[in-house]
Design goal:
single chain, mainly alpha, Cytochrome Bc1 Complex, Chain D, domain 2, two-stranded antiparallel sheet, 7 helices, about 55% helix, globular
Length: about 140
């Protein structure tokens, strides 16, 4: 009898803990998980499995300072590509990042949520409304 009561209480606690996640937390987790897939499919070949980049050719995605400072330009870089010189972590990179043709704005938001919360970065969610607003500014 005592064992049934203890098991029932434990089951109830597990259910309560799972159901107590906020909608913001659930949204972040969805964006992050989907962003991981988008990153692996469209970004990882160049930027690396751990966002380390490629020597002096392809910039790393591990510089939180650069990402924070340029967060409103990140959707534009993904959608339209990037050309010219950029400095990341006191290193100069010059070249061209091709546009991520075919990605929907939601996929860009998911990928940016993953990138800006992986590789040592902790920037929170990059939702589709933010991406839509930033993309209007760069056109």
């Amino acid at each position: 009898m005592k064992m049934k009561v203890i098991c029932s209480i434990c089951a109830l606690l597990v259910i309560l803990i799972i159901s107590c996640q906020s909608s913001d937390s659930l949204e972040f987790n969805r964006y992050y998980a989907e962003g991981s897939v988008v990153y692996q499919t469209h970004c990882q070949n160049c930027h690396g499995q751990h966002g380390e980049g490629l020597n002096g050719l392809i910039p790393p995605l591990t510089d939180s300072v650069f990402l924070r400072k340029n967060s409103d330009q990140l959707p534009c870089a993904v959608m339209f590509g990037l050309k010219g010189k950029i400095t990341i972590g006191k290193r100069l990179f010059e070249g061209q990042m091709p546009p991520a043709s075919g990605l929907a704005n939601i996929e860009i938001a998911q990928a940016l949520t993953y990138i800006t919360n992986s590789f040592g970065n902790k920037m929170g969610i990059f939702n589709v409304e933010m991406v839509n607003g930033d993309l209007v500014k760069c056109r």
